[in-house]
Every structure is written in structure tokens, then in C-alpha cells.
Amino acid sequence: MAESKKIATRESFGMALCELAEKHDDIVVLDADLAAATKTEIFKKAYPDRFFDCGIAEGNMIGVAAGLAAAGKVPFAASFAMFATGRAYEQVRNSVGYPHLNVKIAGSHAGISVGEDGATHQCCEDLALMRTIPGMVILNPADHYEMMAATKAAYEYNGPVYIRLGRLAIDSFNDPDNYSFEIGKGITLEEGNDVTVIATGLVVYEALKAVRALKEKGINARLINMHTIKPIDKDIIIKAAKETGKIITVEEHNIIGGLGEAVAAVTAENCPVPVYRIGVEDVFGHSGPAVGLLSEFGLDAAGLEKKIAELMNK
Amino acid sequence: MDKSEILELKKTACNVRLWTVEGVFNAKSGHPGGSLSAADIMTYLYFKEMKVDPKDSKNPDRDRFVLSKGHCCPALYAVLALKGFFPTDEIKVLRHIGAMLQGHPDMKNTPGIDMSSGSLGQGISAACGMALAGKLSGKDYRVFAMLGDGECEEGQVWEAAMFASHNKLDNLTVFVDFNGLQIDGTVADVAGLSELDKKFASFGFEVITIDGHDFEQIADAVNKAKEIKDKPTVIIANTVKGKGVSFMENQVGWHGKAPNAEQYQIAMDELREQLKALEA
Fold it and tell me: Positive or negative, the Cα torsion across A112, A117, A123, A124?
């Protein structure tokens, strides 16, 4: 495992946009007065002619993106997850989803790890909202390397994509030399047959540390990094259900409507096994340092280790 | 435009109104009032102004039209069918199960529709995106959008207006079909949408006010908009809701209601009379 410096996936996203724009003239980036936060400012500095700040008007931004896509451009529209998917939900549904336009929507500052800004900005509903839109692809990368690859994959895919970005700087745990990303294909990070832990996004690395600690204590858990929430990788879930008989999901999102329910739907219809959802338990977040909040909500390595061990006895 | 051209446009618009009523009647639902008020402008755009080819409806260099007030698609469908984008027979099954022509425009399945629309306020944003794409690609196509007056109550319209003006989208021409009525009553009574011209002017638009049923005025306004540089143009078109069908004209109740068989017959007779007079 390559341990490298901590980097937030929003930063990786900005870097990936620049790499892509070097080769592809059709990329246009939109933001809604949050370029410094979503890190599209990295693109803005490199390609000012292809960057448009739409101001604090997310609904219009999504509509402009739809029009750009209808005229052959590949727009990436970024804002906080709360506003890109919440405020502009209906624009995403009707102007992007229904005509299946080639728009990429980036939702930064997702989950409780937004930190001090508190509940109004801690979006734990974006995956649920985007899952309900027919044809929407949803990517939730777990580290720098995965975000770089996912952004490229989003560009290469012809259709609407939602990409979830985190604010908090996190470890880059994937090995760039042996990593490949494919939309809709989960990645097994640890083998094991006692239980399967399926995690997504920023908390994958926390789950990885928890699963490794549990192995020392005799719990042999499988760990899957589910970077694509939709289309969900049914095969890897069914295989895990058959081989391990129990699944625990981990997400920095409301346990309603996110990864856990997507996984449970697959097992319920194909191979019913107990599925336990670890996440934000249908409550709003609150202010505080991101790392402290992850700990409070039981989504850091220590909290996950404890919770998974408890669930093994259920 | 000479007189014969205007006469031809009037005849085409009359046919557009006949097919509009035909479509709404057969659908047993839909929006005749605003379709009829916008029919002349859409006829002018597709039969006189826009660079479009029914045989090459996705040409990247074409002019574009976004019907932001998407519910008035019966008139747009009639225009597109008469222009040759698809057979007029499609209009007879408008809104039926399995039909190509949906209750609101669907760009994925309907040739000639440049943007799916229907949720009010959204089309003008997409038109801004298309205009911006044209600028970025160095293409000289023009983008037209049509808003309803009631639609201007949507905040997104003003977000888009700010964007269009800020980005100097002089290749964008926005029509407002100002027929003065919306579902719940007159626009003045429902939300007090006053001084729309001043509102758009303060958002940085060139503003032209016309009679939206006068082809010469429509032509002059569209041509003037082409000369305006570095800012978008809005053409506020004063129109009559239900125009052409006597019992529908200026009646709030005909916003979203289909005529019954008897009303259908009266409407078609009236429009055929108007066509006959034009052909005489």
C-alpha cells in the first residue's frame, strides 16, 4: 500500500480537469461562486477561456451546462453537493437527466466531513437524490488516484454523471501502479470470508484500517471499495453475499437512500443475507472539526472497528 | 419582406393553428391558449429566419430554438411538421401512449426539438448554454428562446438573464409571449409582473416591444437583434391568448383545456374561414 501525502478529492478533481483539458478542447467548466472551494479554480487558472463562473445561481448553472452539452461541449458543473444536487435537483432531473445530456455534475463538500460549516452544508442526501434519476451514473471516489481516474472515466462516458467530492484531505492509499478504474466495477481491497464490508468514498480508507485491525483479532472480513453507486456492481455484491453470508455497508451519507440501500436491494432480490448499514443515521450533522465529527458519528477507523465487531455477533 | 411573403407566412400560421387545435383535440388535453398566442412568432422563425434543415436536424451549425414555455408545444409540433421534420399524422396521436410527440418537448425522440423543456424557467438557461457553446466554437449560429410572461415569475429566468448579459451573448434572442394570462388568472393579478421591459433592460438586455401577431414587426425586431453587439436581446411580444379562435381569445380558461367535439368544430371552421380569406 502506497502511503503518500494527504490530499482532498476536490483537489484531485481540479487537477484531473486540467489534465483532461490539455487533450480535449470540448471540456468547459462551470462553477457557482465556489471555485476556490470546489477547486475548479485550478482549472480556471490554467484555462480561463473555458471557465465560467455562473454566480450564486445553481439552477441556471445546471441549465447552462445542459445547453452546452446539447451543443456538443462536455461541461463539468461544480458546486457544493448540497446545492448541485439539492438546490438544483429539478434542473438536474429535467434539463440533464430526462434528455440524457452529457453533463458532469461535481458535488463537493459532501457528507459531515464538511466540518465547521455545519448541517446546512453537510449534504448526506446527494446519493439518494441522484440515484432516483433514470440514467444517472454516480461516482464516489475514495482517494486521489481514484478521483483522477474517475474524472477521466466520467469524461469518456457519454451521458450524465454525478461525482462526489470531499473537502477533507485524506490519505492516498491506492497504489497508482496497480490501479484501474472502471465505472460500475467495485474493487476488492481485502479478501476474507467471515463478513463483507462494502464502503464508498471518503470512509473507504477508514474501513480499510478497521478491517485490517479486525484481522489481527481473528475477524476475517472482505472489504470492497464501491466507487460507483449507480450502476451498482451486482456481481460483486451477490458473490460476497454467497461467500460471506453477511454484509456491512459504510458510507458518509444518510443510511436512507445511499449505498446501504442500493446493496440491500441487490441482496434482497438475488441472495438474501443480513445487510447492516453504517452511516449517518437519519439525523442532521452539526459544526465541529471534520475528524472529530467522523469520530463522533462512528465513521473513523476506531468507530468502524468497534461497530463491525458488534455486528459480527448479531 | 414583401407582401406576398407576409401573406404566405399568414397562411402557414393559420395552418399551424389548425394543426394545433387538431392536436389538442385529439389528445383530449394540452394547452391551446398559449400555443395559439405564440404561433405567429414560431412560424416566422422556422419559415423565414432560422437556418434549419429537416433532413439534417442535428447539424451542429444550425440555428436553435428553445421553447422554454414547453407546454405550448402543440404549436411547435405543428410548425415542425409543416416544415417537414416529421409527418403531420404524428399530431393526431399527440400525448397518446407510444406516441413520439410528448405532452412537453422531448429532444431525444422528436426531430427538430433542440431542447427538452416543460419545467418553467429552465429552457432559457439551456439556450444560454447553446449560445455560449456557439461563441466558444466560433460558430455563427443564433439561438432563440421563447418564454411565457407567467414564466418570468420563475427566479431562474433572472439567473439566466444575468448570465446572458454578463457573458455578452449577442447571439441569443429571447421572446416573451406576453399574452397577459396564466393558469390562476391575469399575470397582473397573480404576481404583479410589472414593467417587464424595464426589468430586462436593467439586467442588461436590449429590449424591443412588438405586436407578436404582426409579421413585419416580428421581422424588424429579429433583424434588429442581429445588429446588437455584446448583449442579448429580448423581444417582448404583446399577444392574444387563444389567438384565431374567437371563444378562446383572452380567456383564462383556455390555458390548459381541450375543446369538446362541438367546440373543436367551431374552432376548425373559424380557422378554415380565415385561411380561405387569405387564399382569396
Answer: positive
